[in-house]
Amino acid sequence: ILEIAHILMEKHDDASDKAYTIDEAQRRHIVETTRHAFTFIRVSMVGNPGNQLYVSDRFHVLLKYAGNNTLANECISLLLDNSTIQEQKIGSTEIQEFILMLQSRAFNSSVLDMLKNVCSCHGSAMENNQTEVGETLLNNEDARGALVGLQESESGELMLKFPGSSKFETLHMVSKDSQ
Predict the structure, then answer these.
(1) Using N-to-C axis directions, what is the helix angle for 24-45 and 2-13, rounded to 10°?
(2) Residues 149, 160: Cα–Cα separation, whole Å
(3) Which of 55, 58, 108, 110 is the most exposed place for a label (fewest CB within 10 A)?
(4) What pTM was computed for the model?
């Protein structure tokens, strides 16, 4: 259901594809159906590692909704809370997808939280995932855009360049004494 709903919504968003036009009532119905589907998935996974493992086989479908859909984020968080799923189902493709989402969604905090959860599970390091995240960010030219750039100004001030920005900005420090 979710995969079909995602495809239909993409077709709706693509105004050039007149063969798949969806009116506003149909769009609302798809959104509502998607909400019910995510609710069902989330409820079925709570406290049920078997269902979590089954749903994790379709992790790529959940990722299509990540960042923009609170229920999808909750489902992904449940999956990332399972170390077996982290070890068996999260790989370079999923990590690259998280990093691309982070770049394209202007540092959406929920995507950043999910990427953080990919790196650890219940306080234990997910070393393979941490290595993959680091290598992807440092070795992939496209992924480097998710990093915050740092440089020192001529006057010794720290300057930052945020993803999506073309220029460095001075970081102004505020001390407790000046407040």
Answers:
(1) 150
(2) 5
(3) 58
(4) 0.73
